[in-house]
């Protein structure tokens, strides 16, 4: 059975979701079996793709919906939400 977890995350690091944090997010997302999506309004991207994450152009303060669906959705969501909340360890 496939679990699903969704919630709102806020980009808190000063430079927003630029290349390095996008890579960190995609790398972490790829360690999980679950599908991972980020939603900004009508725009939905695969959070396992650095290029798609960058297309969000998410600056500091942007609120995104994080959606994890699969066998490890809870752990996936928690790990990614923690990464974002910690500002990708940039600030």
Care to describe what's here?
The protein is α+β, with helices and mostly antiparallel strands and 91 residues long. The chain has a single domain, classed as 2-Layer Sandwich (Histidine-containing Protein, Chain: A), CATH 3.30.1340.10. Helices cover 32% and strands 29% of the residues. The chain is built from three helices and four strands. The protein has helices at residues 19-29, 50-54, 73-85; strands at 3-10, 35-40, 43-46, 63-70. The protein has a four-stranded antiparallel sheet with strand order 1-4-2-3, covered by helices on one side. Helix 1 runs antiparallel to helix 3 (73-85). The longest helix has 13 residues, at 73-85. The radius of gyration is 12 Å and the shape is globular. The termini are far apart.
Concise account of the structure shown:
The protein is α+β, with helices and mostly antiparallel strands and 91 residues long. It has three helices and four strands, in the order E-H-E-E-H-E-H.
Keywords:
single chain, 91 residues, alpha+beta, Histidine-containing Protein, Chain: A, four-stranded antiparallel sheet, 4 strands, globular
């Amino acid at each position: 059975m496939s679990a699903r977890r969704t919630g709102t995350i806020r980009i808190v690091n000063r430079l927003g979701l630029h290349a390095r944090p996008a890579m960190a997010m995609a790398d972490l997302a790829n360690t999980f079996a679950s599908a991972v999506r980020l939603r900004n309004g009508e725009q939905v991207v695969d959070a396992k793709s650095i290029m798609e994450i960058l297309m969000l152009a998410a600056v500091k303060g942007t609120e995104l919906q994080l959606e994890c669906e699969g066998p490890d959705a809870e752990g996936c969501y928690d790990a990614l939400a923690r990464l974002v909340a910690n500002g990708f360890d940039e600030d």
